[in-house]
Design goal:
By secondary structure, the chain is an alpha+beta fold. It has one domain. Helices cover 35% and strands 32% of the residues. It contains twelve helices and twelve strands. The chain has a twelve-stranded mixed β-sheet. Strand 4 and strand 5 form a beta hairpin. Helix 4 packs parallel to helix 8 and helix 4 packs across helix 12. It is globular, with a radius of gyration of 21 Å. The chain starts with a helix and ends with a strand.
Length: 347
């Protein structure tokens, strides 16, 4: 199931100019890779196996209210009209059916579990109560947005593309990112001229996300994004802004690499320098926005830094998502979005 979850991307940053649904058919071949960085990432990537190292190739087709995603091992069919999700095992040739109501329940359970895991990790640092007090008095955040046309161009998968880099910064109001710490989201996109049919795929994903009340995932699975949100609560605000701004871009993204980084405050970074007073405490309980990134992420970051002779770093990437559009077609048959012949429901 990891392969399908990694490939089932809400491709909110792949296309611009959304407007009303075109009700067009679209079929694409894509490759998606999700990697977690640091000590936690080593564990997650190990269990993800080949999917984390090489990515997952998936066939995606959309027609009307139905979307199908098939990989080698498994697949998923989402029907907005029926409000059902069909999960297929391509090897065993069977499938299970989950209603949207059941999906919403699972999402809520995943969110609660991720938050509980984060609290447990913080408690192991002996500072759960301190974190709770900090969260109650969390500073007001500001979101900075920047988009840059680099002027770089290249041919990619049969498309003439140009490079566009979008940056989203979350920091404490009235302070710079370096002063307060915070989060940095960077989306490096190679954009082709707009493909009208791709608007239907993006529109479908948005409607599905709204139906489930789920977060924008940008290529990660819902479970993965819930875990990231538990450790980095302000990430949701950054993802929402990135999705909003992505709609305004001129073109269709053929290759997108989204990197998410946690940035330490100047105070926390100074305290962690060799000989810095209270280095361990400052690393564990940074003031300001740094305290929002979660004890679990902080502890793993410290372990990685301890192995690095160069000392603590101001920025640490915790998640990278790469999505590549290999081909785009408007030829979609009924079979492209149907349960394959011979498959039986696994009750």
């Amino acid at each position: 199931m990891i392969r399908t979850r990694l490939a089932a991307a809400l491709t909110l940053c792949l296309c611009a100019g959304l407007g009303s649904s075109l009700l067009a058919d679209v079929r694409t071949e894509e490759k998606t890779q999700v990697r977690f960085e640091g000590g936690v990432g080593k564990v997650i990537n190990f269990f993800a196996g080949k999917a984390a190292k090489e990515g997952v190739k998936t066939s995606v087709a959309v027609t009307q209210n139905r979307k199908a995603m098939f990989a080698d091992a498994d697949g998923t069919i989402v029907d907005l009209g029926e409000e059902k999700v069909y999960t297929l095992d391509m090897k065993k040739k069977n499938y299970t059916v989950t209603t949207f109501a059941e999906m919403r329940k699972r999402l809520e359970e995943a969110r609660r579990k991720a938050e509980e895991d984060a609290r447990k990790a913080a408690a192991q640092d002996g500072k759960a109560e301190q974190d709770a007090k900090k969260d109650e008095a969390a500073p007001e955040m500001e979101v900075d947005f920047d988009v840059k046309e680099t002027g770089q161009k290249k041919a990619l998968n049969g498309f003439d593309t140009r490079q566009v880099i979008m940056s989203i910064t979350l920091r404490e109001k009235g302070k710079t990112l370096e002063q307060s710490g915070g989060l940095m989201l960077t989306s490096d996109m190679w954009m082709a001229p707009s493909v009208a049919a791709m608007r239907e795929l993006v529109d479908f994903d948005i409607r599905y996300a709204k139906a489930l009340n789920g977060p924008e995932t940008f290529g990660a699975s819902v479970e993965q994004m819930q875990a990231a949100l538990a450790a980095h609560p302000q990430l949701k605000q950054g993802l929402a802004r990135m999705a909003e701004e992505s709609k305004k871009l001129d073109g269709t993204a053929i290759l997108t690499t989204t990197t998410m980084e946690a940035v330490k405050s100047a105070e926390a970074l100074a305290a962690e320098q060799p000989g810095g007073a209270g280095a361990e405490d400052a690393a564990s309980t940074p003031s300001s926005v740094g305290g929002l990134i979660g004890g679990f992420g902080r502890r793993m970051a410290r372990k990685s830094e301890n192995k690095d002779a160069s000392g603590p770093k101001a920025r640490a990437a915790f998640m990278t998502i790469t999505n590549e559009r290999l081909s785009i077609s408007t030829n979609v048959s009924a079979g492209d979005v149907a349960i394959p012949a011979g498959f039986k429901e696994n009750r």
